Amino acid sequence: MTEPTIREPETRTVDAPGATIRFDVRGDLGGATAEAPVLMMVGSPMEASGFTTLAGYFGDRPVVTYDPRGVGRSPRTDGASETTPQEHAEDLRRVIGALGVDRVDLFGSSGGALNGLVLVSRHPERVRTLVAHEPPVAEVLPDREQITAVCEDIYDTYHRSGMGPAMAKFIALVQFSGPLPADYPDRPAPDPAQFGLPTEDDGSRDDPLLGQNIRNGPANVFDYDALAAAPTRIVLAAGRESAAAMPGRAAFGVAERLGVEPVVFPSHHGGFMSGEFGMEGEPEAFAATLREVLSRA
């Protein structure tokens, strides 16, 4: 087994309207080449720390990670409580600009994949290859009405009852295999205790997943004409173990709309992790697949 090479990141900032975005640079940006440009790894609402292991498998090129607007070390300064995929995409553009490079390779996970697709639809010249791993969008799926209803209910549950009940519903959704049946939104709510979640409301409402991403992400509609016309090579990816769950199914749906062949990666939705946020995947195999996909550009 190959161990990842841990490089100490240099943290930098870029100012944006309403926020200060912090990003981490591993390696020498001057060492990027046309064949191996800077590799950005982005999530949403996951912070940069979720990519610690995966970044270690790309010690031969500069790697950049970041904390999305309103998460971790990237505080909002405008007092707004919700962020759209379009705002996140513009922040990604700002980070790329602050790197002083023309374009990057971009690996996006979950909401990061969604934001990466929006970025490419708006600024395709900034991304050579986009690998969008399990973007959680509903509009390409036959059960989009049920998904939208469930996501709205999770959002409402969070603001009404707190993190435990809302997160229990979220976990049940992402663990469900296949299209949601018509009666899914009417089924009894899962017990937070069965997932080890708190049953009491602590009054906080600062969770970016439950308080904003759950509503703004799945409801997003891409500009498919712009994506199809982009010079960026777009790769949709899904985990072998999670391909039947909603984000995995969405990857196949977006790939079909764009007329591209999806790629199946090892493991699951967090398959690139090795304990980050409690997720155990197959990071070495995942990194090997990502490297192979990027090498085709």
TrEMBL record:
Q: Cite the Gene3D superfamilies for this sequence.
A: alpha/beta hydrolase
InterPro entries on file: AB_hydrolase_1, AB_hydrolase_fold, AB_hydrolase_sf
Pfam short name (any one):
Abhydrolase_1
Domain AB hydrolase-1: from-to ranges: 61-157
- Keyword annotations: Hydrolase
What is a GO molecular function of this protein?
hydrolase activity
Q: Where is this region: Disordered?
A: 67-89, 182-206
- Indicate what this protein is called per its UniProt record: Alpha/beta hydrolase
Q: Which organism is it from?
A: Streptomonospora wellingtoniae
